[in-house]
Amino acid sequence: MNSTKPSPLKNVMVKAFIFCVFVICFRFAYVVTIRGESCDVANFCFFSLPESINFVAAAGVKASSSAVSGGADHADVWKSMDRRKAVQFYSSIFQDLIAEGFLSPDSKSLCVETQNGEEVFALREIGVSDAIGVSKKASKPLVVSYKDSRYPFTDETFSFVFSGGGGIDAVKSFGHLADEIARTLRPEGYLVVHTKSYDTYSLSSFIALFDSFKFFRSREIDSPNGHLREIVMKKESRRRVNTRGGQGAEGDSVNKCSAPPGYKRELVRNAEPLIAVEPLKPWIALKRNIQNIKYLPSMVDISFKNRYVYVDVGARSYGSSIGSWFRKQYPKQNRSFDVYAIEADKSFHDEYKLKKGVNLLPYAAWVKNETLFFEINHDPGDDPEEKGGKGKGMGRIKPVRSANSLASRVDEIRGFDFANWLKNTVSERDFVVMKMDVEGTEFDLIPRLFETGAICLIDEIFLECHYNRWQRCCPGQRSEKYDKTYEQCLELFTSLRESGVLVHQWW
Question: At 393, phi and psi to the nearest 5?
């Protein structure tokens, strides 16, 4: 019998076929067994698995092929190694949260401020199938968009809300985001946030925004993008969140301050030292002091606030401090501030009509609502350029008209309860900066702020304290306008700092 010799081409084709089968089997085994993923990932397999077949993920959490619907739609998540690492990282985080009882496969979950949906993909992969993301820009089908700071979901829709990758750090109006989270999360539901902020001030600010939540824990974690802080909170009630004004959600006003927390005392300790000895040339020493000031935003993250407010009490002209200092030099961390100018001198009012973004209160800050006398006087030592006053003199308010006065002009003006106004204008959820230059009235206003508890609402104060300082024009002579001494001013600054108030000496 003659035997037919195998064709060389046939041998090559058989070997190639065996090699391809080996590669496919190896890839299948790697995807399913080693990576713990379903065959649907990246549309690799040539067949689809029944929805009832489940695989066990690497960490022992069940994941089904039905956990991710429409595999082709999710292929973008796996286009880069960075996204794959992100999904693996979030899968590990969510598995830990399941083990701790903060998350379950039945949780209806929302991922906020997620750009590409890696968090949503990871949730679905580990078996939390009812998950969706929300962001300004949609990335369907994983992420939907929202407009006008309102999520497209009804109240109390979700039992788990997550924000990862430090995405919330870039939100310009975090107060609105916090309100939406509180609105859409059910009572007994959990909020988990990853942020790049580490300081205790930012943590306290974050907790204050969620006044219907209970704080569970804060821990540091390592992520593909560096170190992050993980915050876990639980919603306890349907308590209404008040985003404006000093009244609490139950309608109780803030009447007094509790003992200042440790982080506030630490900030005061880190502030520039007070000038302990009265300067012989205050017009030089106090001006130089601004170079030593440690601004609060240079020490902490101020991201987690509802609003940002600057109150200039005794504003004088726009260029006196608002235009020349606050808007140009104060470190705002790219936040937009609501600006209030409180100025009783009528000669400056017309100027503010032309200034956008400034709310003028044409009254005198005082301890109660009443008619006052506003005295414009000149001291031989006054430096008009220093105040931006163009020689108009400095105004002092008095409850009664002085019998013997150096005043060149006396006007009747309306005084208002500044502490009460502050409590009705801002809340502890806001970031409030105040500059006060009220020609001696600070010795009335500061005690009133403590008495009413309004002092608690102020994060940072720049205070000019007026005393019988040495005059620039006349060596050896003190100003006759003020009867307080430098020691009394120093006591005022010291008492503020000992109370946990970050106050700076102003000129």
Answer: 85, 170
What pTM does this model have?
0.78
Q: Which amino acid type is present at position 401?
A: R
Q: List, in sequence order, every beta strand (DSSP E) within 346-459.
A: 358-361, 364-366, 370-377, 394-398, 407-417, 431-436
CA dist 142 and 119 (Å) reads 9
For residue 181, which phi and psi values (nearest 5 degrees)? -65, -45
Classify burial at 47, counting beta carbons within 10 Å of its beta carbon; exposed 0-12, middle 13-18, buried 19 or more.
exposed
Antiparallel, parallel or unpaired: β 394-398 and 370-377: antiparallel
Angle at 422 between CA 291 and CA 183, to 5 degrees: 105
pLDDT of residue 68: 38
Cα distance from N-terminal residue to C-terminal residue, the chain:
116
Is residue 120 helix, strand or coil? helix
Give the pLDDT score at 250.
40
CA distances from 297 to 271, 286, 502 (A): 12, 22, 12
Q: Are 338 and 309 in contact, with CB atoms under 8 Å apart?
A: yes
Residues 6 or more apart whose CB falls under 8 angstroms from that of 20 comprise none
Alpha-carbon span 40 to 48, nearest angstrom: 7
The number of beta carbons lying within 10 Å of the beta carbon of residue 362 is 15
Residues in the chain, pLDDT under 50: 1, 32-73, 240-244, 246-255, 380, 383-391, 393
**Alpha-carbon gap, residue 461 to 146, rounded angstroms:** 37
* Ramachandran sector of residue 437 (left: φ over 0; alpha: ψ -120 to 50; beta: rest): beta
Chain-centroid distance of CA 257 in Å reads 22
Tokens of 178: 């916090």
Q: Taken in order 319, 322, 326, 328, is the CA torsion positive or negative?
A: negative
Q: What does the block give as tokens for 447?
A: 């005690």
Nearest to 427 by CA among 316, 309, 336: 309
Please tell me the predicted confidence (pLDDT) of residue 472: 79
Q: What is the pLDDT of residue 70?
A: 41
Using DSSP, state whether 181 is helix, strand or coil.
helix
Report yes or no: 118 and 86 within 8 Å, Cβ to Cβ: yes
The pLDDT assigned to 202 comes to 94
Choose among 264, 123, 106, 261: nearest CA to 192: 123
Q: What is the pLDDT of residue 248?
A: 43
pLDDT, residue 294, reads 96
Pick from 182, 130, 127: which is nearest to 151 by CA?
182
In the sheet with 407-417, reading across from the earlier edge strand, the strands are 364-366, 407-417, 370-377, 394-398
